[in-house]
Write a structure and sequence with these properties.
The chain is an all-alpha fold. It is about 65% helix and about 0% strand. It has 6 helices and no strands. The chain has helices at about 10-20, 20-30, 35-40, 45-60, 65-80, 90-100. The longest helix has 17 residues, at about 45-60.
Length: about 110
């Protein structure tokens, strides 16, 4: 990776998730989230990362990996603790987190 911005992994994950290819979606979104990608000065759309985390959590939940889904959501919800409570994406994250059950993920 050269540190250049590429949205290919994001859109790969999006299509995979829509097609029910949950393992492939998780893998693509994790590639999208790699630190080298986010070190790029050209990237200025953090909502892409938030959306990718929501979709990753949904895919993990569908794969039966509820604790891993909780971890992904908890990370983003912590980062958005001061976000506008009316954001639809935030509401989606909170609803999924509530559906996954209260309490922290198992260690």
């Amino acid at each position: 990776d050269t540190g250049t911005v590429s949205f290919v992994p994001y859109f790969h994950g999006l299509v995979a998730a829509e097609e029910g290819l949950h393992e492939e979606a998780v893998e693509a979104f994790r590639r999208f989230e790699r630190p080298s990608f986010w070190a790029s000065e050209a990237f200025e759309a953090p909502w892409f990362l938030a959306r990718a985390r929501l979709l990753t959590a949904r895919a993990l939940e569908r794969l039966g990996q509820r604790d891993e889904a909780k971890k992904v959501l908890d990370l983003q919800l912590a980062r958005w603790k001061d976000a506008d409570p009316d954001l639809p994406l935030l509401a989606e994250m909170k609803a999924l987190r509530a559906a996954l059950g209260s309490g922290p993920p198992a260690k």
